[in-house]
Amino acid sequence: MSSAASLLARYPIISDQMRPDELRDVLLALERQLAKGERGAVVEFGCYSGTTSLFIRRLIDQYGLGNEFHVYDSFEGLPAKTKADYSVAGEQFKAGELAASKKQFLMNFTKTHLAPPVMHKGWFSDLTPADIPPGICFAFLDGDYYESIRDSFCLITPQLAPHAIIVVDDYQNEALPGAARAADEWCRVHRWRIQAMHSLALITPNT
User: Fold this and answer.
1) What angle do CA 129, 46, 197 make, to 5 degrees?
2) What is the tally of helices (H) and strands (E) in the chain?
3) Nearest residue to 60 (alpha-carbon basis) of 40, 86, 74
4) Residue ranges of domains in the chain, CATH in brackets
5) How many CB atoms lie within 10 A of CB 89?
6) Which pTM was predicted?
7) Which tens digits make up the pLDDT trace of 58-99?
């Protein structure tokens, strides 16, 4: 059994925003990097209450390579939609939905006795290059909307390690079409491979 699978069998998922199969895919992609000894930074854009963050921390700790872990979130819920995000299936997603406070996020780490990641509070469009660590080996982008995913890509691109792996949530979610649009656009420009897995996209260098 992989370390990722072992963690999923041992610990509960604390919210319904990530299915077990999706979380497993995220962790297995990260484990591919850690198992190779990649020591680069791990980043998560859109962390909500820490559902995925807790498991990422556990997996990083289990391998003990000293990878920096950074998370980014407005902690104010969803931003306003743009035309790129319109979908009849996604009418339930409105500005301010899915809000979780920074305090709640940190409390979930305290309760599980895990060291919190480096936290960056703000809309992704307001972040600067100084907020992004160098040598990113793994990025999980969970911004839901087109502009949030696009802005995440813009921020991480200059700092991606040569063999980085990127996972984008909601890639095959018809309720959130902007995520796929932003991921596809970035891959066309940068010529990275994109592979759908459940509702996610696995993005790797085309080398």
Assistant:
1) 110
2) 6, 7
3) 40
4) 3-204 (3.40.50.150)
5) 11
6) 0.94
7) 999 999 999 999 999 998 866 677 777 766 555 666 655 666
